[in-house]
Amino acid sequence: MITDTFYVTPVSELEKLEDWNKPLAFQAAHHHENLNVPDSTEVEWRLRDRMKTVSVALVMCLHIGVDPPDVAKSNPCSKLECWIDPFSMTPRRALENIASELQRQYERWQSKARYKSSLDPTQDDIKKLCVTLRRNSRDERILFHYNGHGVPRPTSNGEIWVFNKNFTQYIPLSLYDLQKWISSPSIYVFDCSHAGVVLNLFVKFAEQINNEPEEGRRNVLQTALPSIPGHLTPQIPPLLTAPSPLHDILLGACSENELLPMNPELPADLFTSCLTTPIKIALRWYVLQKDISRLNPNIDQDMIDKIPGTVTDRKSMLGELNWIFTAVTDTIAWNSLPKEIFQRLFRQDLLVASLFRNFLLAERIMRSYGCHVCSRPALPPMFEHRLWHAWDMALDLCLKQLPSVLKQTESGIREPTYEPSSFFADQLTAFSVWLSENSLLTTTVERENLKQPEQLPIVLQVLLSQSHRQRALDLLARFLDIGTWAVHLALSVGIFPYVLRLLQATSDDLRPYLVFIWAKILAVDRACQTDIIREKGHEYFISTLTDVRSSNGVRALAAFNLTCLVDNYTKGQEELSQVMPRVVDILNTSTTHFRETSALFLWSTLFLGQAWRSNANACEKAVLSRAPDTLQTLLLTHDSPEVRAACAYALGTYLSSSTSGNELSERRSEQSKEAAMILIRSLHDGSPLVRQEVLIALRHFLILFTQSTTSGTTVTSNINRANVNSLYKTVFDKVTEAIQTVVASDPCHEMVQLAETIITDLQKSIQTKFFQWCCSRFRVSNTITRDLGSGISQQRGAFTNEDDEDYFARSGRYWHNHCIRANPSRLADFQHMRETVFPNRISNSTPLVLRLHPYEDYLTVANSHGNLNFYEVDGTPRSRPTLKIGSVGSTINTLDYINAHHRTLICVGTDNSAIRIFDESTHRLLSSWIALYDEHNHAHASHHHRSTPNLSNPASPSSTPPTKFVLDWNQDLCRIYASSTDINYISLWDVERERCLYTMDTNSSSGIFCLISDSNGFCAAGMGDGTVHCFDARSREAPILIIPPSTPLKPHSAIISLNMNTNDRLLSISNLGQLRRWEIETGASAELLAPQTSQNVLAADVHSTGNVLALATTNALQFKTCFGDLLFDIKHSKFAQVSSLSFHQYRQLLAVGFNDGSLSMFTGKTNSANV
To answer: Where is the Raptor N-terminal CASPase-like domain (predicted)?
Structure first.
């Protein structure tokens, strides 16, 4: 039995693979993301109907000393009311003290409310109280607290009980009347037995009251306006909306048919105690429980009452417990309730929020004594939530220290020392664990299906603590970095006022977190700009932006926040206008590498663009600080395409602001023309992103010119209007000509469409979404790990966005590549080559360029119809067999693979000097530009033109073959060397910067026919006169010619192929079959003594590892060694029709294309079986 053995490559070996060190080109966000981002949707987190409880009615029906007739109290029985023994003093005084204490307890939650007590009241007292409070409260909320311990239980008809004047009878008070008197909005607390009866009937009466105005109005109108025969019934206008009693809130101590607890160890008003003094009753109840494990069971009630501190002092033991309790109950509610109910009950009103947090404790305690609290709106059971165990643990750890603390207190120590609870630190750790498991989810489906972290409200509470604040901000920043879903969640839980208040903080340690958090919030909800400007929070961002001690990433975040504050917000523009000169100073700062400051420069530039958008005053201030001049310089020189696009965008908003006003100063007029001339030069930028913004900016200039020639008030009167119009006309013509050139030659379809629209309909509103797209980058996940500099924890690199799944996929791909490179073809493998003719022929077109993928088994063919065809190596068309280049009227001359070791892109060059970059898997155009451009004459490849003789037929010098565009792609340096057969210079393009670094002049009139470069920065050009020119292009300033031009070796013997080996030697092949060796260091050359072909060479290529070259002549396909020795040849007349051929980079494969559209694959002995 044969078994397969699988070997697992160690991770340490995978990390050593050379492909990890190879750079990847065209991986910027603007290459792969959809720039037409949708507009951000409005965030529903603000409370539209925020309320405040301004009045509190305390109705105490106790009748101390007299028990209700329908309640049989136990003996002993609970008797404390508001922690006061009513039998320790006279009944009247006890009643007054109880009411006063209840008011004091409520005042802790709402100190500014208007409190009114009604002690053992009559029905008239209640009516007067309610009507008075509603008149004073207007549309604000009223709290009605009813203690019915001294009266009978509510009736089944919906009545509670009060007294007559002489206390001889219990008088029923209809809940219907109570609702009518007190009106809405209101909140009711019923601390009495059978409280559930009240809640059940409350809805019935509320619906009745809610419908009464509409029914009464209809009856009156129908009586006053009876219908007339033959006439339409008059339309009844709707009533104005008013607060409905259906929205009132109720809290009840127990359900119907349940009596209040009578345990003598508990207060009689246990429900009220839970609502108003939660910590005190929680501690007492906790000590009474026998089934809860405690670390110190010897704690008694007397010790509980001596816990030092106050509930408002978080540094004290009692205050810390209250802080923990608030966090626990808030978190339980947030995790258990629907968002709308949580917002209404826990965020709308401070007093209501406190009551409902304490209501959760009441549910837990009352259930232990057989009572089921009730509420409207009804809440799900929360008494068994697992966070109650965390609360029990916190109590245990606190009470364990209590004996020691009390000893310190008894010895006279005013502030006893104790170990603070680890509750918040533990919860932050749990939140950190959740983040580590979920923060790297990148797909929308994954984020939408995320379960919200239950600790998020606790993180909000921890922001109040200086000891945990930095860690909490760090975790919050990481959470918000998940994306819009996380921002919505944080805003809904109530994070906004906390982080707004922290903008007043002075600690430098918090700056990275706060500016990042605010960047995430402002990216999702731009309406926050109003709150920040009102609270002077923008000063925090200004100080961060101008603080050179902060990292560039943090300063970039501050610049983004300031940009959001001036975006379409006049008040923000006015407040931040004084910042523009300081931003200009930042942009004028020199940098060693553009990556270090690209984000900072991007958002500083966009800040200027938004600060003066539609704001003439800001534009005048910008002229004084020479901001447009700075942007023009950056537009021409900065290495980041996104920064250059931002400069063009900002200049566009500057010009559009000029068109929106009636008065244009002389300086601004001159500035506009200077900007237009700079923008014309940038129409030939290597990035379509930049060119589109340049087009939009030039459109604004054309509109400005149109206004200046038609309006006499556009330019101030101190300039001669005729001269101004003449100057504008000159620039206008240049701008128009430049835009027409875009229509004629730009390889980007979107650019052509924009330019055509501008020419045909100047007044049509067109715009890009570049600014919106830049802002949207903060709405997606993993901003920390992708775009920013240092300053936030858990950062993995400025330009990395890779999860574990992608890492393993890349590891497998790189290992596959390594195996192919580790077994390259050798000379002996080419002794015998077998031809396989592809069964599919390219119909009616000729294969012009062939390329075999170095690591995947397919062939790419560029045909004469301007399309790419894809075949497996056996000739079978691939699943997506055709890619339409979209280059009308031009011919494909060059073809190469970019990032072939990773995810392949295809580089296509056409004879009009256009380069297009496509994604091989999606066929999407990622980038395109004109590679050869004379910036002095503003024409494509126009300088140093020459008439190229017919190299295929030297006897006919008068015929001129078509121009051929040549380029060489260098993966190691991410550079493209481009030239043409009818010019004498080489353009060096840095694809990371998407700009031409410089041109290298050959000082020859013979044209350039082939290019090759290496990883050291050397570039060699094969000339039309048979010479080779080599340049050292390592310098950013200028190249060095290291192989000087020599005397032409033979007339019209153009170099058609070059090969560079590891020994710094070049092998050149001419169109006459000449082989010549060149020494790069010395420039010396020697022709190889090998039999020359008697015919012109139609196509040639060199195998990079096998030291083998292939030559196609008019009657044979020759295989030679790189020393000129003939291995073998295949003679056939069909080889006279060879249009192109190409070797595989590592394997023994040679693809050959013929003029009739047929393709053949020649394979060596080790590849024959595969093909």
So the answer is: 50-203
Specify whether 522 is located in the same domain as 654.
yes
- Within 924-1064, strands assigned E span 925-930, 965-970, 975-980, 985-990, 995-1001, 1008-1013, 1018-1023, 1028-1032, 1040-1043, 1055-1060
CB 836 within 8 A of CB 874: yes
Q: Are residues 599 and 525 in the same domain?
A: yes
Rounded CA gap, 276 and 81, in Å?
Answer: 12
Residue whose C-alpha is closest to residue 15's, from 797, 801, 815: 815
DSSP letter (8 states) at residue 43: P
Tokens 């160890």 sit on residue: 265
Task: For residue 1013, give the 3-state DSSP assignment.
Answer: strand
Residue 53, Cβ density class (10 Å: 0-12 exposed, 13-18 middle, ≥19 buried):
buried
Confidence of residue 855 (pLDDT cuts 50, 70, 90): very high
* pLDDT value for 800: 36
The CATH number of the domain where 730 resides is what?
1.25.10.10
Structural domain containing residue 91: 53-211+243-268
Domain count, the chain: 4
Note the pLDDT of residue 1171.
38
- Span of 705-719, 902-916, 951-965, 1048-1062 with lowest mean pLDDT: 705-719
Closest CA to 1074 of 1101, 1056, 1060: 1056
Residues 248 and 296 in one domain: no
* 109 pLDDT higher than 60: yes
Q: Which of 1151, 473, 1135, 513 shows the shortest CA–CA distance to 838? A: 1151
DSSP H helical ranges for 310-455: 317-336, 339-346, 350-367, 387-410, 423-438, 444-448
- Within-domain flag for 143: yes
CA distances to 231, 921, 944, 1045, 1063 from 1042, in Å: 103, 40, 21, 9, 16
Whether residue 1151 is contained in a domain is answered as no
Could you write out the DSSP letters of every residue in 841-899? --TT--EEEEEE-SSSSEEEEEETTSEEEEEETTSPEEEEEEEE---TT--EEEEEEES
Residue 975's DSSP bridge partners are 970, 990
Q: What's residue 293's pLDDT?
A: 53
Assess contact for 525 and 43: CB atoms under 8 A. yes
Give the integer Cα–Cα distance in Å for 343 and 330: 11
**HSE, side-chain direction, 13 A CA sphere, residue 1061:** 16
Average pLDDT of the residues in 361-376: 95
Tokens of 1086: 């020697």
Contacts of 235 (CB under 8 A, 6+ apart): none
Spatial contact of 708 and 662, defined as CB atoms under 8 Å apart: no
Q: Is this prediction's pTM over 0.85?
A: yes
Task: Give the whole-angstrom CA distance, residue 45 versus residue 493.
Answer: 9
| Domain harbouring 981, CATH code | 2.130.10.10
Are 679 and 569 within one domain?
yes
**CATH number (domain holding residue 70):** 3.40.50
Q: 346 and 258, same structural domain? A: no
Residue 429 lies in a domain: no
Look at residue 791 in the predicted model and tell me its pLDDT. Answer: 40
Question: 262 and 332 share a domain?
Answer: no
Residues 553 and 663 grouped into a single domain: yes
- Burial zone of 162 (CB within 10 Å; 0-12 exposed, 13-18 middle, 19+ buried): buried
**Per DSSP, which regions of 24-140 are E strands?**
53-60, 114-119
How far is residue 782 from each of residues 485, 516, 712, 794, measured CA to CA in Å? 13, 12, 53, 11
E strands of 175-212, at which residues? 186-191
- Can you spell out the DSSP letters for 452-518? PPTTHHHHHHHTT-HHHHHHHHHHHHHHHTT-HHHHHHHHHHT-HHHHHHGGG---GGGHHHHHHHH
Indicate if 568 and 694 belong to the same structural domain.
Answer: yes
Q: Has residue 1059 been placed in a domain?
A: yes
What is the average pLDDT score of the chain?
85
DSSP per residue, 766-790 = ----HHHHHHHTTTSS-HHHHH--S
